[in-house]
Amino acid sequence: MPNDNVPIGIIGGSGLYEMPGLEEPQWRRIETPWGAPSDEVMVARLGDRRVAFLPRHGRGHRILPSELNHRANIYALKTLGVRWIISLSAVGSLREHLEPGTFLIPSQFYDRTKRSAEHTFFGGGIVAHIGFAHPVCGTLQRLLFEIAQSSGPASLGGTYVNMEGPAFSTLAEAEENRRAGFDVIGMTNLGEAKCAREAEIAYATVAMVTDYDCWHPEHDHVSVALVLDCLRKNAERARRLVADAVPRIPLDESCDCHRALKNAIMTPRHLWPKERAGMLGAILAPYL
Ligand SMILES: [Zn+2]
To answer: Catalytic amino acids?
Structure first.
């Protein structure tokens, strides 16, 4: 298993297809047993730390949320040695006080996708059930919030509801999501977070509010133009946040996220089908 000792991964969402400012950038094509990731992965350096950057939708934005291969994306980062992922994602706000421009660091995800079978590395003869009550790494979440706070409006906690897309919500859906108590809405993070947890990678999201979805009577309904306009204004803040966060991530293995599979695998090792175990190689390595 290749492991290049790149401990930190960054996944950039809409509007974040490059990470200028990283040193010695090198785009690498990585094939995984789960297929190809969204794009080549940029391996670079930030100070004395190595980081890997992956544009979630590919450079040029070519991949729909429901077409994303989260398994390949996470597995590619895993093979580089990534133990911590900062996810940068554009979201719509479902709350008056979460104005466009706010960076929310959510605590929870809620799944409204129809693709949960694609959001796991397990199956095919090897069964595992990871704990996912707290889908976000608390250590990374607090660090990202502390830094986000120093550069503009920021909010800690709350729930990100993951819709299927690609169309934005109907008004009825937006109202229902508000009644359910959700705070922001996006199309990508749930599957990504689940695969990261199975891969024992600590994961947290910076949800960058770009619009008020379609429920707010005094604001324009969400559109691509509105999202991109807000993202352009936020991209520099997001890059600075990453640059400030990377040196402060504790690179020890103190977090439970790094042991998520410890008591999660049901199938005894002697029953693991060889082919599937091979596909899970980078993930199962600590348990062999
Ligand atoms: Zn953690």
So the answer is: 211, 213
